[in-house]
Design a protein that fits this description.
The chain has 148 residues and is of the alpha/beta class. The chain has one domain (25-145): Cupredoxins -  blue copper proteins (Immunoglobulin-like), CATH 2.60.40.420. The chain is built from 3 helices and 8 strands; from the N terminus they run αββββββββαα. The strands form 2 sheets. It has a 4-stranded mixed β-sheet with strand order 2-1-4-6, with no helix packed on it. A hairpin with a 2-residue loop joins strand 1 and strand 2 (37-42). Helix 2 runs antiparallel to helix 3 (137-145). The protein starts with a helix and ends with a helix. It binds copper (II) ion. The site of copper (II) ion has 6 residues, from loops.
Length: 148
């Protein structure tokens, strides 16, 4: 009996640590020049789990990260120019965000949180971002295509 109690304690403890390990932190750099060209988030498409955090890094100055579309019930974010910002994503769905000074150059990003069955809301919202872009228009479609 005593042995059984001990093993269930060990099991409970290991489950606790597994739970803690599941919540990951991801990093997105804000760059003047990236592998995709000028004025980009890198990586611009991220797939994360519910409860994960994403840290936007002001690697280069002059950028910000501001949400442009979030799923129902989720909170948006407004980063300051040239500052890091960390957001926790607790609601499943597709998130769109932009860099305010460079959205017209296609500086946008997409985050998928958990399982997404319907991305039509994000696709519709992307049209509004596309209307503001003079270049890099192909980026947002490319990122949204990676949602699965
Ligand atoms: Cu920017």
């Amino acid at each position: 009996m005593k042995k059984l109690k001990l093993s269930s304690l060990v099991l409970a403890t290991s489950l606790f640590y597994q739970g803690a390990a599941l919540s990951a932190e991801h990093e997105v750099k804000m760059l003047n020049n990236g592998t995709e060209g000028m004025m980009v988030f890198e990586p611009a498409f991220l797939k994360v789990e519910k409860g994960d955090t994403v840290k936007f890094l002001a690697t280069d100055a002059g950028h910000d990260s501001v949400s442009a579309y979030v799923p129902d019930g989720a909170e948006g974010w407004t980063g300051e120019n040239s500052k890091d910002i960390t957001v926790t994503l607790d609601t499943e769905g597709v998130y769109l965000y932009k860099c305010t000074p460079h959205v017209m150059m296609g500086m946008v990003g997409v985050i998928q949180v958990g399982t997404v069955t319907d991305k039509s809301g994000a696709e519709k919202a992307s049209e509004e971002l596309l209307a503001k872009m003079a270049m890099g228009k192909d980026r947002i479609e490319k990122y949204l295509a990676q949602v699965n």
